[in-house]
């Protein structure tokens, strides 16, 4: 287990390094921030001073080394726009995105697994078929459109839910959270549902496929031959077997949900990281973009690691030592 | 005779899109306390479906459509699912063909044994665990206390089948249905398992239905033998009588196909052709398309002919003269 962990961490290190190179080059290709940042009225001397100040007069490889050196010391650069450390800026927005993404993923499990179980157990029933048809909509409708429709129905027409912002927040561990207050929860309901719709469909289909695959197995028949109740057979024997793919996908989806909360955050004006990154891209605030992408890479690596560890708990046949 | 189980005119059909599949068509037999019935036939002859019909685990599109299954005088076909469940695993148990598939791969052996005990007996977990340990010891599993903590994949095939047998015998059932439990095992393990089950069945007076396609397995075990072909019993009688003087050409062919019965250097005898599809069964004797003795009369339904008081066969052209 320990050798495996060390090997994985070294692997992760290389992934991060490769990622910094790609991100760094990519960000420099998309445009020159100088044109946006410096007012057209500034004279030549002023221009040169600012460029030198931002470190943009150096060649790219030099800028990269300076960045790496900073990164090793926990400094991912200062935002050109806000003149604040990029990391601090992102960290300030992170709780909002995190609570939204985690809620969305939780919803996808809490809603997706039971619906998938039902659709798997009654594949030919009317409800089972309806669930499956609905999941296709969840897959294929674009997030921004669903978000707008939600706002139109629940905020504009019915007036049940607020459509923008985080609402009232409460502090926990020195961070402001929306899910701790009723008003915050009301604000979170629509964006979270919007964000989870795709994941619900995914988990639902995965669960259904797993049930269909597991039910005809001999060990299920044997469990029934032991005289176990249908509930025990379904919730212990079937469910534990299908949790393996579900956990993998949910884990990976948590990463993408955080990374791609951008659209939902824009639609619902949710002040999270996604909104920050969109704004930063608009003004070519390189340090923030780079720092954000680095965070996302680290996030994916961590989640993958956790999923692998969780695997061993769910499937006794998986042995971490033997894996590369 | 006081029968533990008496099957009368059992019909189990599968309602598929291609048509009605008569997997079991008018099958009758009985097994007394402590007796062993060998149910012999090729793949697709309906022997396994007969077993599943008795324990009430025929899955859709299959259904028991006729006849009665009397367990100590009670008709199992008329019991509710709940009543059936209380018998299943308690009074009537079953072991399956492939030991690699009968135990749930993601649950520990103790979990799978304890749940089987607690499904029918109101005992504490600790008490159930002790009983599980003793049961494992009884079927010849070394250091049962430690093995309880293992997962199925940590056992060999033979050991897994022993675990399955231990589970089936946990409540000392009145009837044990063994569906080819030794087919997937090594010959040496086969013999051990056979001896084990025979001894346990004899000790508790368990009636045993041993389903197999292998006559050599059944020869030393069964008191009586029923030979099934295309959903029907074509020959039924005392084991010695059926094996030594088979009446039906199909039984004769089966016995001839056992390699040890053939002389060295001689071509292995075989039954020509394949089991007919149950969807397109010819009228009359189902075996006539593969039978050397068949003629025009075989297009009629062959009646049950009595060879001796305890030996019957359905054939117009028996291998030995049947007294009228």
The percentage of residues in β strands of chain B lies in 25-35%
CATH topology of chain A: MetI-like fold
The 3D shape of chain A can be described as globular
The chain-level structural class of chain A is mainly alpha
| Tally of helical runs of chain B | 11
CATH class of the largest domain in chain B: Alpha Beta
State the CATH topology of the largest domain in chain B: Rossmann fold
CA-based shape of chain B: globular
> How does the major sheet of chain A shape up?
2 strands, antiparallel
Radius of gyration of chain A: 24 Å
Largest interface: A-B, 23 and 32 residues
Q: Can you say what the CATH homologous superfamily of chain A is? A: MetI-like
Mean pLDDT of chain B, as a whole number?
84
State the order of secondary-structure elements of chain A, H for helix, E for strand.
HHHHHHHEEHHHHHH
Could you explain how this protein is built, in words?
The complex is a heterodimer of chains A (324) and B (324). By secondary structure, chain A is an all-alpha fold. Chain A has helices at 2-29, 33-37, 44-54, 60-72, 86-121, 126-140, 143-157, 182-214, 218-225, 230-259, 262-267, 273-282, 286-314, and strands at 170-172, 175-177. Chain B is of the alpha/beta class. In chain B, strands 6-7-8-3-9-10-12-11 form an 8-stranded mixed beta sheet. A 4-stranded antiparallel beta sheet of chain B has the order 2-1-4-5. In chain B, strand 1 and strand 2 form a beta hairpin. In chain B, helix 4 packs across helix 5 (125-138) and helix 7 (157-168) packs parallel to helix 8. Chain B is globular. At the A-B interface, helix 9 and helix 10 of A face helix 2, helix 4 and helix 7 of B.
Could you outline the blueprint of secondary structure elements for this entry?
The complex is a heterodimer of chains A (324) and B (324).
Chain A: H1 2-29, H2 33-37, H3 44-54, H4 60-72, H5 86-121, H6 126-140, H7 143-157, E1 170-172, E2 175-177, H8 182-214, H9 218-225, H10 230-259, H11 262-267, H12 273-282, H13 286-314
Antiparallel strand pairs in A: 1-2
Chain B: E1 3-16, E2 19-32, E3 36-40, H1 47-55, E4 62-71, E5 74-75, H2 81-87, E6 92-95, H3 99-102, H4 109-118, H5 125-138, H6 144-147, H7 157-168, E7 175-179, H8 187-204, E8 207-212, H9 215-219, E9 224-229, E10 232-238, H10 239-244, H11 249-256, E11 304-308, E12 311-314
Parallel strand pairs in B: 3-8, 3-9, 6-7, 7-8
Antiparallel strand pairs in B: 1-2, 1-4, 4-5, 9-10, 10-12, 11-12
Helix pairs in contact in B: 4-5, 5-7, 7-8
